[in-house]
Amino acid sequence: MAYAATLYVVVSNNLRGTSFSQAEIKRIFLGEITSIKTGRVHLIYPSYSSDEITTLSKFVGKGGSVRDLKSYWSKMIFTGRGNPPDTAETDSELKRLLAEDNAIGVSKQATGMNVVYTISE
Predict the structure, then answer these.
(1) 3-class SS of residue 13
(2) What dihedral angle (degrees, nearest 10) is formed by the CA atoms of 108, 94, 46, 25?
(3) 3-class DSSP assignment, residue 121
(4) What are phi and psi of 69, to 5 degrees?
(5) N or C: which terminal CB in the chain sees fewer CB atoms within 10 Å?
(6) How far is CA 76 from the centre of its chain?
(7) Parallel, antiparallel, or unpaired for β 42-46 and 103-107?
(8) Is 7 helix (H, G, I), strand (E, B) or coil?
(9) Domains plus CATH for the chain?
(10) Containing H/E element for 25?
């Protein structure tokens, strides 16, 4: 599987040092895993207009299609099986959202972040 860019799965300070498998990360980003041992997951997506969302869509098995990813979340919300992820338009907004406990998101940069997994080509 090839991805357009390298992305880093980043977490809030209370999850620093926690390890996640690739399968767990995919399930978290699809809203299938909503709680971890420290509480409810606060999921953060990149902006739906960013290059990162295409890479994330490929990684979770939605073929790189933003439309398919949005459709997936619409179905999850409509059926009551999930809550939509927050979106971060900028790195500073991502950092602000990561200040909350149990937050998990993706970033193009690793500097100054708690990285738990790397999505790469």
Answers:
(1) helix
(2) 80
(3) coil
(4) -65, -45
(5) N
(6) 16
(7) parallel
(8) strand
(9) 7-119 (3.40.190.10)
(10) helix 22-29
Strand partners, 44: 86
What are the DSSP E strand ranges found in the chain? Answer: 7-11, 35-36, 39-40, 42-46, 86-88, 103-107, 114-119
Question: In a 3-state reduction of DSSP, which class is residue 95?
Answer: helix
- Which is nearest to 97 in space by CA: 26, 28, 13? 13
Type and span of the H or E element at 62:
none
Write down the residue that tokens 């406990």 correspond to.
Answer: 101
By the 10 Å C-beta count (0-12 exposed, 13-18 middle, 19+ buried), 92 is classed as: exposed
pLDDT band with cut points at 50, 70 and 90 for residue 120: confident
Displacement of CA 57 from its chain's centroid (Å): 10
Q: How many CB atoms lie within 10 A of CB 66?
A: 15
Two tokens, residue 20: 């996640």
Count the Cβ atoms, other than its own, within 10 Å of residue 76.
Answer: 16
